[in-house]
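Lab meeting notes turned into a lecture example. A postdoc, R.K., suggested we walk through two folding results consecutively so the class can see how the record format repeats. The first protein's sequence and structure tokens come next.
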Amino acid sequence: MKQAVVTILKPLPDHLFLVRDTNAEMRWEAMAGQGYHTPNDRFFVRNHTSTPLIDAATWRLRVHGAGVRCPREFGYEELLAMPSRTLDVAIECAGNGRRFYGTQQHDPVPGTQWGLGGIGVARWRGVPLKHLLKEVGLLPGAVDVLATGLDAPFEDHGHVRRPLPVGKAMDDVLVAYEMNGERLPPDHGFPVRLVVPGWVGIASIKWLGELEVATEDVHTPWNTVFYPDITTQPVKSAFELPWNARLPARGLHVLRGRSWSGQGRIVRVEVSLDGGTTWREAEHHGRHLVSAWLPWHVSWAPRRTGPRLLMARATDETGATQPPSTPRHPFGYRFDAVVQHPIQLVNG
């Protein structure tokens, strides 16, 4: 059945700033006071082409391939009626932090120059992918599940598509239709998208239209050319402050931020208020979720005006800690070094 798809372009809200085409970072200062989840209108946008507008009444999810016994199609209302699961999960662009290879390590890499705003945490609701795979009769020889989106073909590479190993597909992956208690916005995959906890954002295919279960390894441009050899994300931290923020040099400040890792829970966060000369442990009372982030804070009473470099470094449960610098990645992925966040202390 032919899917009803219309491509749309629209202005971006002030909480985001345009990077390229329909790609936009979240402003970290826009997360201050927002609670645990990233509001839908503040959630970063990353599209390879442009946002399609899809009619849920005619939309179908086709599940087929050599690795299933009974291929079939699922409609939107069918998915809504199935047993659901709700997860708090971070989705993060593979290139999040790419800008700092150049600005901080003086070794720039090509690609969209993301700061740290290519991430968001939402409460996603949907059908576990393993439920759909059981519905179609997953065969013992199944190896990969190839997810394909309904956005427009990208250059001469076809539709955005990327495989998941069956082991991951049968673990914690959602076929999500809800984001923070609302149906998915068009920019975030309406009517249905994948949500793949811990993995790079390209794995969480938006505008999902097809799942092909293969009995051999699958290779597409999105796991060979553009995002080769990258699955989970490393440890990162960010302050809920504008870049080059101006703060009064007198009085007590509570500096807040968040740390995350695709490899496990954050267990420790340290903050430096003097460019890395001294460090102290941040306080955190939030949830230590393996697939999301940990909010933290430190109190600070500065006494002098002038420039400062704020730094935060986190450690996850695997023992991975953010390093002072990270080796250059040819595509600008996996930047996990401690980011130097400049501020200015002023009279006032």
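The second example is placed directly after the first for contrast:
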Amino acid sequence: MPALPQDPAQWLVAAMIANAVLVLPMALLVRRDFVRLGRVSWPMAIWTGATMHGHALASFVLAFVDRGGLYTPGPLSLTGGTGVFLLGAFVIYLGRRAYGDQARVYGLKEDVLIEHGIYRRSRNPQYLGYGLMFLGAALAGGSGLALVFTLVFAGLVHLYIRYVEEPHLTRIFGGAYTEYCQRVGRYFRV
């Protein structure tokens, strides 16, 4: 029997890989919910929330545990990374504020196409904000592992948006969503 990892970073990497692998069945089940219910079911809302927040927590801890893995953090990287992190947190706040209802955040309510607030500049501010927070933590800590998992997160989220969320929103809101997509960038448009 292989020995269990002793290094906390190895545990975090294993957990993040498992989380990334579990995103595929989660995405398929969310897609099924969208087709059957027109929204996300409670169990899937819990799973998607746990996946997102679990990845966030693991990313922040990994950036600390692996600090200096890519470069030695200094005042510039700490300041810049903290700034990127805080910008991401602010973008998430603006997105949730524009939603006006926590049920919309987790896909439990699909009754209105949100086009005000930060949604005039980004169709996906929640994902953009989390990505910025992960990147900020990686930069502040000089963590190569946290940077890799930021890129993994960005890739998985892009695929999820492209193949699960956007087809659903097109089905629900039709031409209004298509027109919105032409005006507003998937992640950001000035």
